[in-house]
Design a protein that fits this description.
The protein contains 6 helices and 6 strands. The chain is α/β, with parallel strands linked by helices and about 220 residues long. Helix 3 crosses helix 4 and helix 4 crosses helix 5.
C-alpha cells in the first residue's frame, strides 16, 4: 500500500512541475553567481528547467553557477538538444563544468560526452533516473520516445563508447516507474548510487538526493 501512495505522490509531483513554468517566469537571479564552477541542467522528457529547480538551488548554495539550455524542448531529438547543450558549454569560460540531468537528459549528457569535441571541458556528469539502457516506454512512437528504446541508434552509439562512464555519477531510485526494467538504470563504469525512494520524478524533490549531491559535489 505504501508503494501505491508513493506513486500517487509521484504523479502529483509531475503535475506540479507542469505548473511551475507559469509560476516562475525566470530562474533565480542567484543562479548567476558562484565561485565553485558551472553546472548545466538538462531536464528530461516533458520537463523544463523548473523540474530541476530544487536541485539547482542546492547546487547554487554549494557555490556553483547554474545554467539552463535556451529554447529547450524536451521532446526534440537527442541530437538537437545536444547541439543546444554544446552552445551553452561554448559560452562558458570556466574549467569546472558539470552536467546535471534527469531522465532523457541523462541520455543527452552521455551523447555529449561521447560525440562532442567539447567533452573534455566537462569535469563530470550527474545523471538522475536515466534510462541508460532504454525503457519499455521507448516502444511508443511519439515525441521521439523511440530514442529511448534499448535498441535505438542513439543508445547503441553511446553504449558503444564505454570509457566516458568514468566521468558519471549515476543516481537512481529504489523503484523507478518509468525506466522499465529497473536494471536499465545501472551503468557499468559509472559511480552507481541508489536512493531509497519510490518514483522516477519524485527523487527530484527528495532530501536524500540533495544530501547525496552535496556529498559528491561539495
Amino acid at each position: 500500500m505504501s508503494t501505491l501512495f508513493d506513486l500517487i505522490k509521484e504523479y502529483a509531483l509531475i503535475g506540479y512541475f507542469k505548473i511551475l513554468p507559469f509560476v516562475h517566469k525566470t530562474t533565480p537571479d542567484a543562479w548567476n553567481h558562484g565561485d565553485k564552477g558551472d553546472v548545466v541542467l538538462i531536464p528530461g522528457l516533458h520537463e523544463t528547467a523548473f523540474s530541476l529547480l530544487k536541485v539547482g538551488n542546492v547546487l547554487n548554495v554549494l557555490g556553483y553557477r547554474i545554467h539552463t539550455i535556451p529554447d529547450f524542448s524536451s521532446i526534440a531529438p537527442v541530437q538537437k538538444i545536444h547541439e543546444r547543450l554544446e552552445n551553452v558549454v561554448k559560452s562558458l569560460d570556466g574549467e569546472e563544468i558539470i552536467l546535471v540531468s534527469h531522465s532523457k537528459g541523462g541520455v543527452v549528457a552521455r551523447y555529449f560526452l561521447t560525440q562532442s569535441p567539447l567533452a573534455d571541458r566537462v569535469k563530470s556528469a550527474v545523471t538522475i533516473s536515466a534510462p541508460h539502457h532504454g525503457s519499455l516506454f521507448g516502444k511508443l512512437q511519439y515525441h521521439n520516445l523511440h530514442e529511448l528504446d534499448h535498441n535505438s541508434e542513439v543508445l547503441m552509439t553511446i553504449n558503444d563508447s564505454p570509457d566516458h562512464a568514468k566521468k558519471i555519477i549515476n543516481i537512481y531510485p529504489r523503484l523507478d516507474n518509468h525506466v522499465l526494467p529497473n536494471r536499465n538504470l545501472l551503468l557499468d563504469g559509472a559511480k552507481n548510487i541508489e536512493i531509497d525512494i519510490v518514483g522516477h520524478t519524485r527523487i527530484l524533490a527528495s532530501d536524500k538526493l540533495f544530501d547525496e549531491l552535496i556529498r559528491v559535489l561539495k
